[in-house]
Design goal:
This protein has about 120 residues and is mostly helical. The protein contains four helices and two strands. The chain is about 45% helix and about 5% strand. The longest helix is centred in the middle third of the chain and has 31 residues. Strand 1 and strand 2 form a beta hairpin. It starts with about 20 loop residues before the first helix and ends in a 13-residue tail after the last helix. The protein is extended and about 65 Å long.
Length: about 120
Amino acid sequence: MPQNIGGRFILATNVLDADKLNNEDVLPEYKSQQSTEGGFRFLKDPLFFTSTVFLNSRKRVAALAMVMGLCFLVYSLGNRALRQYLKRGSQIIHNKLGKRTATPTLRWMFQCFMSIHLLTLASLK
């Protein structure tokens, strides 16, 4: 089997003005959105219970979307802070698969600390 196998997929856009978005820029623009799209994977997670949410009005749907967007913002900032802290200290931790990584997710870190119920630190004074 050949090592280099190319795949094809279709990208479509509603931006028809080539001055705003030309054909060569469609793929890089699409790929730049993947980090944001990946962040919303938690919506499909059974622990998030989005399938059980039913809202009666558009205002409530908009309110839930706003709250979820803010939660995603806080989560993204937490991920960023965690990774910057590890980078500053040249630290590497093990991920879920036991492999060393410098870019863990905040969710994984929360799971690592789930068994800690109380942590008491002695004063350094």
